Amino acid sequence: MLPLRVLTINIWNRQGPWEDRLRLLTKGIAELNPDIIGVQEVIHKPRGRRDQCQACALADAWSAAGGPAETFVSFGPAFSYENGDQFGNAIISRFPLHQDETFTLPGSDARSAHFARVETPAGLVPFFVTHLSWKFDEGFLREEQVLGLADFVPSVVRAGDLPAVLVGDLNAAPDTTEIRFLLGKHALERRSIHFTDCFERVGVGPGFTFHPEENPHAGLTFEAPRRIDYVLVQGPDSQGRGLPLSAKVCLNEVVESGDRVAPSDHYGVLAELRMS
Questions:
Q1: Domain 4-274 sits in which CATH superfamily?
Q2: Which residues pair with 128 in a beta bridge?
Q3: How far apart are CA 275 and CA 36, in angstroms?
Q4: If we measure between CA atoms, which residue out of 88, 1, 77, 79 comes closest to residue 39?
Q5: Quick one: DSSP state of residue 46?
Q6: Cα torsion at 99, 144, 38, 158 (round to 10°)?
Q7: Among candidates 77, 75, 79, which has minimal Cα distance to 97?
Q8: Please, which residues have CB within 8 angstroms of residue 154's CB and are 6 or more apart in sequence?
């Protein structure tokens, strides 16, 4: 059986040249051929047309570009704007999604984690996508949020599920307390959880996903390059399921014609996981 191909990407909502970025995102996703995509910074219109909801627009464009004829989309809000539009996380999948749920993460910054059980050929995969607080001095908020994830993940994972997958823009480098907690390398409040960082296990190079020196949209911040986007898996288990087979930074094309345009202000991460 083929490995499960998992992609994560923060699409930077509608900032910058969205239509141009959507074309680059669609082109890149079609070339990557993922099975499941975790998407952050999604703008969703609860009562709008399908093409007005970013995750649905991206899914439809992927299908039109040679992706799966049918896609499955699930969205979970983090907060709502005054006009009723919602901002949050989404899952796009070539496989059916079941029992989706959104969990509000603790803390004063409106953040959430979105979950669905994905019906893959190998079995049901509990899939989580999230987006943690972004400021450098908000490590304390991210610590609260990962503690929330440590409550949410086991509350929905069931016996018989394949290893859970957690993806997203975690806004923290691998050596921070909040990431070390997720990897079982540091306890918080006498509690622990364990995921495997796919890029740490099988990726090559620094793996920068926020790269102001190369990405024109990230360059607006003048920040240092860093790795802050992740595909994590609660594996491998005793049968080798959840074993990371490959991981790479992707969706990092920069088009030079006219204004420089990249798919987003973040790069994506694609990982292949053994699930059988």
A1: Endonuclease/exonuclease/phosphatase (3.60.10.10)
A2: 115, 166
A3: 13
A4: 88
A5: T
A6: -30
A7: 75
A8: none
Beta-carbon contacts of residue 190 (< 8 Å; ≥ 6 apart): none
pTM greater than 0.85: yes
User: pLDDT exceeding 70 applies to what percent of the chain?
Assistant: 99
- pLDDT, tens digit, 9 for 90 and up, residues 138-167: 999 999 999 999 999 999 999 999 999 999
How far from 180 is each of 58, 145, 205, CA to CA, in Å?
32, 13, 19
Query: Do 7 and 250 form a contact (C-beta atoms < 8 A)?
Result: yes
In the block, tokens 């957690």 appear at 166
Beta strands 268-274; 196-197: pairing state? unpaired
Nearest alpha carbon to residue 164 among 131, 130, 125: 125
Q: What distance in Å separates the CA atoms of residue 209 and residue 252, rounded to the nearest whole number?
A: 9
233 membership: H or E segment, kind and range: strand 229-233
For residues 245 and 4, the answer to whether their CB atoms sit within 8 Å is no
